[in-house]
Amino acid sequence: MEKQHKYPGQGLKKTMLYRFGRHEVDTENFLLSDQWGRVAIEPQVFDLLVYLITNHNRVVSRQELFDSIWQGRVVSDTSLNNHIKSARKAVGDNGQLQQTIKTIHGRGYQFIANVTELPDHPDRETENDRSCHPSQKTIAVLAFTDLSPDHDQEYFSDGISEELINLMTKIPELKVISRTSSFSYKNTNKSIKEIANDLGTTHVLEGSVRKSGNNVRITAQLIQASDSAHLWSETYRHTLDDIFQTQDDIAEAVTKQLELTLFGKMAKSIPANTDAYTLYLQAKHLHQQFTDEASLEAEKKVKQAIAIDANYAPAWLLLSRIVFQATSYLYKKPFSEGLNLSEEAVQRAIALDRNYARSYAQLSLINIMNWDFEQSIINIDKALSLGWNDSEIISIAAHNAMDLGRLDEALQLLSKAIGMDPFLAINYYNLGIVYGWLSRFDEALKAIHKYNEITPDAAIQHMTVSFILLRQGKHEEALFEANKEPHEFWRLFTQHCVLFTMGKETEADKLLIEFIDRYSEHHPTILAYLHACRGEIDDAFKWLETAYEQRDPNLIMKINYTFFRNLHEDTRWKKFILRMGFPEGHWLLEQTDTTRQLHSSHSSSMV
């Protein structure tokens, strides 16, 4: 006889399908899913989640959960706390945000998300049916072709395409391939069917833009991938003043053609002064080139846009990103000054639009660089709650999870991000890093090689491969990769560690002296790592203290790196990790007995 769940006061319930936010719960198949597919969840956590959902109209006490889920077995408070945390994590919630499962202090818990209860239907597909015949609609918006007379409006045609992607990510039932992957087919000879097959999409939206002065002609057509049938096509002839309405009309037409269900109103473009919008698109186009010169010009353009229209939130977000890039990656602005400017700009964006998801994601990055880890978690969770279908936000969330040492969460998010944006190289690089930390070396190398396929000879990939090979004991291969690293800073860094590990200490010593002469002033974390590599424990801790005092942002992620494991048995290590202030869930915290005791004694207050 098939097992059925019985909940107190309800009697036996027939199979139900519950929908809340981006999630569905299928009680027959014991399935929790979101728009990407099945979400991993332990059976007892699933039972707890279903119990809270079926009783969402009231507060459920802790004792009631003990009685109903564990049915009288002796279970600790810590076990219930951990199950609540797992349930929250499965549905994209946490103890700080509490947007789905709320703690009612002194009383218990309540499921507060809006729940739609859908009775089971005989013809409803099972999970296996869905896996064999995917019903979810997926779309790739290709870069619209610039047909302007002088072919000098690519920034504009790209901007239109990207805005359509952004609008469609807000449609709950639609999976949207992100910009990086969709735009990789510019100037390709591949057919629509081939592109759709590469990206795993059911539909493709393509089009063209012709801009002459203030006049714009946009043609868009929706194509079904399976047979290349044109489902819909429209040409819009307007002035620039109508560009936002045109974008909204295209997105709405696609929604109707794909017979998608909207929960609430269709998302709309954020309007702006047309001159400001043109400058904004130019700045965005420059920013994506990721060079020193383009970054400077992008900053000028977006500031001009803001001077014309200071109420356009996307321009403030773009300014924040440009300054953040110049500070954290291009090293063209003093660190504290750059972060302050970046935060001021993104706070302006949030003040203008409290529901602008990407602004919260950007702020979460700044929070981490400022060592405000708890606030970073709050902001990335806010971003995910507003932009759960946005691969860019998911990629940032994955990067944040890496920074905060939440490796399982990082893997899950990276898997989702890659599914939505299979050609975004950084996701494969980050995947390789996490696999390396977990000593899953074959998977790490596979991910880094995929990164190299997309961005051949990019900086740091040879360094990363070298360290993975070094951990596998393949010293000669590791040295070969170290010597191929194009970035001089990282080449010296890697060569030193490989040579020292190989026993070539004289050569390694020379490289260390050279590195210290050239780079010691601004890189205390790297110097700590080099000494850890050499087994010089006291020197390593000396530089770690310097990095801590300076709030070196490199310390946050690089504390996970391989040779810092040489310090793990030293009594100073546990104390140092606790001083870092990492939030609960960091894998380095879980290594310390002290931390386990702290978490155990305070666990009830952390839920």
Short recap of the structure:
The chain has 607 residues and is α+β, with helices and mostly antiparallel strands. It has four domains: 6-130, Orthogonal Bundle (Arc Repressor Mutant, subunit A), CATH 1.10.10; 136-257, Rossmann fold (3-Layer(aba) Sandwich), CATH 3.40.50; 274-354, Alpha Horseshoe (Serine Threonine Protein Phosphatase 5, Tetratricopeptide repeat); 401-606, Serine Threonine Protein Phosphatase 5, Tetratricopeptide repeat (Alpha Horseshoe), CATH 1.25.40.
Q: Key terms for this structure?
A:
607 residues; Serine Threonine Protein Phosphatase 5, Tetratricopeptide repeat; disordered C terminus; 55% helix; Rossmann fold; Arc Repressor Mutant, subunit A; alpha+beta; 4 domains; six-stranded mixed β-sheet; globular; 12% strand; five-stranded antiparallel β-sheet
- The low-pLDDT segments are 1-13, 121-134, 593-607
**CATH class of the largest domain, anyone?**
Mainly Alpha
Query: Strand content of the residues, in percent?
Result: 5-15%
SSE class: alpha+beta
- Biggest pleated sheet: 6 strands, mixed
Shape from CA axes?
Answer: globular
Mean pLDDT: 86
Which percent bin holds the helix content?
40-55%
Number of domains: 4
Kindly report the CATH topology of the largest domain: Serine Threonine Protein Phosphatase 5, Tetratricopeptide repeat
CATH architecture of the largest domain: Alpha Horseshoe
The helix count comes to 27
Structure report:
The N terminus and C terminus are likely disordered. Strand 3 and strand 4 form a beta hairpin. Strands 10, 11, 12, 13, 14 and 15 form a six-stranded mixed sheet that branches. Helices cover 55% and strands 12% of the residues. It is globular and about 70 Å long. With 607 residues, the chain is an alpha+beta fold. The protein has 27 helices and 15 strands. The protein folds into four domains: 125 residues, Arc Repressor Mutant, subunit A, CATH 1.10.10; 122 residues, Rossmann fold, CATH 3.40.50.10610; 81 residues, Alpha Horseshoe (Serine Threonine Protein Phosphatase 5, Tetratricopeptide repeat), CATH 1.25.40; 206 residues, Tetratricopeptide repeat domain (Serine Threonine Protein Phosphatase 5, Tetratricopeptide repeat), CATH 1.25.40.10.
